[in-house]
Amino acid sequence: MRTSLCEQLGIEYPIVGFTPSEHVAAAISRAGGLGVLGCVRFNDPAELSDVLDWLDENTDGKPYGIDVVMPSTAPTEGSVGDLAGLVPQRHREWVDRTLTSLGVPPLPDGDADDDGVLGWLHSVARAHVDIALAHRPALIANALGSPPKDVIDRAHAQGILVAALAGRADHARRQVADGVDIVVAQGYEAGGHTGEIASMVLLPEVVDAVGDQVPVLGAGGIGCGRQAAAALALGASGVWMGSAWLIAEEYTLGGQGQTSVRRALLGATSADTVRSRIYSGKPARLVKSRWTQAWAAPDAPEPLPMPLQNLLVGAAHRRIAAADDPEVVAMPVGQVVGRMNSVRPVADIMADLVREADETIAALGKLL
Ligand SMILES: Cc1cc2nc3c(=O)[nH]c(=O)nc-3n(C[C@H](O)[C@H](O)[C@H](O)COP(=O)(O)O)c2cc1C
After folding, report:
1. Ligand 1: distance of its center to the CA of 360 in Å?
2. Is the CB of 336 under 6 A from ligand 1?
């Protein structure tokens, strides 16, 4: 399983793995793919610097990437103080009442005033980019459209490739015009922020739109080698996967909430996800739980726009994690969760993906 992407990125297999965990990212790169570290969780950019130092030392000299969240359309500027004041009291009261009714206890004193995720404020994401540029990523990806032009230019000046996630062919066209080097065509099935077009339809559309100019990676709904081979058949130069690594043995993020999240993911079927604005204010796919159900009830308020919604639910997410109840979790995951049924090391997940993709491609050659 080799494509031109392997040469371009200096990797063995055309498999890119997005993950919020540096341990998983390093293991993906060591296993021959490209581990891409999600930076949005680093409210304190200094912490990211330490983590990238660690990645530089733990990837055996293999390339890795980083991912920032710079929404190209949503206004995500402002200080936390200003923004927190825009969260309606009615919403705060509903969240509090709902957590109580779900049996989620309050956090111990002093822990309650969590800021939520700040990494999607441009000011914070820019700090992530500055820190990344002081390290040695091979790729900088942006989750929500093209990054700003100066970010693209600075990455290029250091020989770093720029990728962007696209949920529509016209978005992909715009990204390539902006100077993006790799487009990730991410279908509706995907975990996290996602659009409305399924991968089977989206991927050939994006390949037809920009595939003669840049490599296109297939994302959304890829959890095994047959799905990876299908993405190549649809014209992709490689795959970009997020959900599958969440149950990797190396994924230890989330501390006390880890047990419940892992149990919820291992027990979920492909029908057990929901696309909703409750996580960040933009549509994102999450595993269904009593928390997502509560937001679908008639008494629930409309989720707020990004970035206010996550300021509203930031402390709630920490309370939920601390409660460690597999029926009440707040976790992005895609429809491939249905085949995420055992905890295995990244190297095993990667070896199976490559073996099954190779077998599938060979079998297709013999089919006709
Ligand atoms: C837990 C989780 C968090 C995610 N966070 C981000 C993010 O911060 N930035 C980003 O570009 N994509 C993010 N994504 C989307 C992934 O990059 C990827 O496109 C998606 O997971 C692919 O679909 P799949 O889940 O079917 O593999 C996230 C996905 C998951 C499951």
Report:
1. 25
2. yes
For the stretch 64-102, pLDDT in tens is 999 999 876 654 666 666 677 888 999 999 999 999 999
**Count of CB atoms within 10 A of residue 129's CB?**
23
Q: Report CA(192)–ligand 1 centroid distance (Å).
A: 5
Kindly state if the Cβ of 71 falls inside 6 Å of ligand 1.
no
Nearest to 219 by CA among 304, 110, 335, 303: 335
User: Which residue from 249, 246, 193, 189 is spatially nearest to 221, judged by alpha carbons?
Assistant: 189
**Residue among 18, 70, 117, 245 to mutate when testing ligand 1 (max atoms within 8 A of CB):** 18
> What mean pLDDT is predicted for residues 22-38?
98
CA angle at 159 for the pair 231 and 165, rounded to the nearest 5°? 35
Kindly give the distance from the C-alpha atom of residue 24 to the centroid of ligand 1, in angstroms, as a whole number.
14
Ligand 1, atom 10, residue with closest C-alpha? 143
Task: Check if the beta carbon of residue 251 is closer than 8 Å to that of residue 245.
Answer: yes
Residue 135: closest CA among 172, 109, 160 = 160
- Using N-to-C axis directions, what is the helix angle for 308-323 and 258-267, rounded to 10°? 90
Residue 120 to residue 340: CA distance in whole angstroms = 28
Q: What's the predicted TM-score (pTM) here?
A: 0.95
Q: What is the pLDDT of residue 138?
A: 98
pLDDT in tens, 110-166: 555 556 677 778 888 999 999 999 999 999 999 988 999 999 999 999 999 999 999
Give the distance (Å) from ligand 1 centre to CA of residue 108. 31
Residue 18 Cβ contacting ligand 1 at under 6 Å: yes
